[in-house]
Amino acid sequence: MENWQLDSVTRGQLWTTVAIIGALSWAGYAISLAIYRLYFSPMAKFPGPKLAAMTQWYEAYFDLIHKGGGQFVFEIKRMHGPIVRINPFEIHISDPDFYDILYATGKLYDKLPSLSNRYDMALAGFATADADLHRLRRNALNPFFSMSKIRSHNALIQDIVDRISARLSAEYAGKSDKILKVREMWGCMMADVITELAFARRKNFVDQSENMHAWFTEAISGMLVWTHWMTHFRFLIGVMNSVPGWVVKRASRHLGAVWEYREEIESQIRDILSGTNQQAKSASHETIFHELLSSDLPKEEISFDRLHHEALTIVGAGDHATKWALTIATFYILENESVHRRLKKELTEAIPGPDEIPPWVELEKLPYLSAVITEALRLSYGGVQRMPRINRHEQWLYKQWTIPAGVPVGMDNYHQHTDENIFPQANEFKPERWLGNPKVEVEVDGPDGKLTTVLKPLSSYMTAFGKGTRMCIGINLAYAEIYIGLATLFRRHEFELFETDRSDVTFVRDLFSAHPAPSSKADNLQKVACWRM
Ligand code: HEM
Ligand SMILES: *[C@@H]1O[C@H](CO)[C@@H](O)[C@H](O)[C@H]1NC(C)=O
């Protein structure tokens, strides 16, 4: 008995001692790491909050917790001077003229490897961190997205918009109780265009979906909602993949849609690889995957997983940003009577017969429509999360700062598009700011080392598609869809806003791309009411 008591006392003491030593060593490690990061790291000289320099949990707090998450980009704006250390490892620059240097044409910069897998599409070009491997993958896709290739798809895109238009006339026009949810309508269009181009198998959402609502939209939102969680807790991808699909589908509508989307794309790739996709063989256009399979990519680059990941990204990216830019455009046109009237007037004069919509190459020449589209792209942002680049070989110089090779540097379109020196009253939708090819005066270092003033076109500061070697590959397709979509629907139909205001489209949450509040009617997937004809 006595022995047993002694035993338990010693065992208790032993565990207490182990726990104390463990806690002390952890604290010691944490404190030395913090001291290193603050005073000895090569990043120590850059300005920024001490806490953010000490630990990545600072960023995680704003990404995940503060006001429901998605707030770090606003916190970065609050921190700013032109250059800030936003976390222990990364620099952020807010200076519109550095964009062309960081995202320089022809330069091979890496992305952050830690971001590669966050959407579980690590083998896609978009997610490829290594610059050389990215170039290989991107070059194989380039021909498919070239200007001439996209121009050749004009009739196909017009056909899909015509179907929307016919459905609006038949189902919505003149029926005051029938409410059209515009974001979903554009989502149907995007999903149909990209599934046709990618697989020659159109989903036919514009014809067949109830209330013109494509479940693809839900799947893509489902992925974006988890962006920050997947970034900060990378093991979650593994956890998710270990849960059977049917459990996920039952547990969550959003995640269920994500699963369904992955399975859908998977089966498309299987059919293409096994040669059972007859539509693709007889289609009047080449599909993305035929482009890839007939390219000179090495064999391991056209594996099932590689193609699956590439397809998930292209279909997702093709859907999301374009439909949001069109939603922003639609809202702001309808919100302001003078913008609406001026656009209508231009379209009516340029397009005498509403059934004969000119091709994109002609629509692009309409000045007011173009101004409306550029302004909508500015306020839709493209991406609002910073896009870090790593220069492995050389340092970057910015003003008096030398950024060591290998340090990730990021900029973002939120800072870019809301810079009041470039875009006065940046939060207002003002298409007029783009009319007449305006220029901005910029001071740069001249050849003699003195500051000189140069004129840069305002359009070079509209960076919704990014710039450089990693810029959006789908830019031509996106423009074609936006021009044809807006010109057709605004030439033919009358719309008015229904219980929708700016709060429904204003950017308040960064989920990689710009999102409005969760309660937004443009974003809320449960409600089917927004705009009516
Ligand atoms: C308004 C519409 C669009 C906007 C604003 C937009 C914006 C962007 C941006 C900012 C990037 C660069 C992301 C980064 O550097 O991390 C990007 C990349 C990409 N986009 Fe788009 N995008 C749009 C439409 C499209 C369309 C229609 C497609 C294709 C069907 C597409 C496919 C892609 C792909 C594949 C990438 C990755 C390119 C690479 O890493 O080489 N996007 N997009
Ligand atoms: C409507 O748009 C015009 C042209 O951009 C602008 O001058 C005017 O201030 C806007 N009106 C409102 C109420 O925002």
Automatic annotation (TrEMBL):
Q: Which residues bind heme?
A: C472
SUPFAM superfamilies attached here? Cytochrome P450 (SSF48264)
Question: Please, which domain of life does this record's source organism belong to?
Answer: Eukaryota
Positions of transmembrane segments: 12-36
**GO MF terms held by the record:** heme binding; iron ion binding; monooxygenase activity; oxidoreductase activity, acting on paired donors, with incorporation or reduction of molecular oxygen
- Which cofactors does this gene product need? heme
Keyword Glycoprotein on entry? no
Report keywords, A-Z: Heme, Iron, Membrane, Metal-binding, Monooxygenase, Oxidoreductase, Transmembrane, Transmembrane helix
User: What is the similarity comment for this entry?
Assistant: Belongs to the cytochrome P450 family.
Q: What is this protein called?
A: Cytochrome p450 protein
Q: Which organism is it from?
A: Rhypophila decipiens
